[in-house]
Amino acid sequence: METETNRNLDADRRWRVDGENKAIRYTLARCELGWLLVAATEQGLCNVALGDDRKALFRTMKARFPAATVSRDDERLKDWVSEIARFARTPTCGMTLPLDVYGTAFQRRVWRELQAIPAGQTSSYQIIARAIGKPQAHRAVANACGANPLALIIPCHRVLRKDGRLGGYRWGTERKRRLLDWEAEG
């Protein structure tokens, strides 16, 4: 059954890699995980990132969409920031925000599989690779996790190494540990 999220992930066919002809609104806010950058087009979220340095978060977002028109809009995005921050701490509360992301066909398959991992549970790169029909592609799965443009929303933090260790996380392994701990608390 196709969900709204899956339809929105497929909508990235509209995107050019550099965001040409896109207007992106963004905001930065403090949260329990450091700085949270939230960026969106009129269609939905295109970038959610976590970090310690708000300027670095902005530079990374801008580098992802160098041809887009980018403007700060704290007021229009404040409710989305609140929903994302609440979801980070309580992932079972669900989220209904629209998405507008770019990714290759392989990345989209991985990201859909990540969204199927329930809060409080984990998977491995190998299990994800088998689930998408590419059992030898566990390194490519790890790369797709690293390319995830939507921290928290596409829960790549729920993927562990085969031996159960945390492995890497684009937004820092300490954040990954905290997210998994919060989810384990229920």
Tell me what you see in this structure.
- The chain is an alpha/beta fold and 186 residues long.
- The chain folds into two domains: 4-93, Methylated DNA-protein cysteine methyltransferase domain (Double Stranded RNA Binding Domain), CATH 3.30.160.70; 105-185, Arc Repressor Mutant, subunit A, CATH 1.10.10.
- Helices cover 40% and strands 17% of the residues.
- It has helices at residues 4-10, 54-64, 74-89, 105-115, 125-131, 138-146, 173-185; strands at residues 23-31, 34-40, 45-51, 69-72, 123-124, 159-160.
- The strands form two sheets. Strands 3-2-1-4 form a four-stranded mixed beta sheet, with helices on both faces. The protein has a two-stranded parallel sheet with strand order 5-6.
- Helix 5 packs across helix 6.
- The longest helix is centred in the middle third of the chain and has 16 residues, at 74-89.
- It starts with a helix and ends with a helix.
Give a topology summary:
Elements: H1 4-10, E1 23-31, E2 34-40, E3 45-51, H2 54-64, E4 69-72, H3 74-89, H4 105-115, E5 123-124, H5 125-131, H6 138-146, E6 159-160, H7 173-185
Helix pairs in contact: 5-6
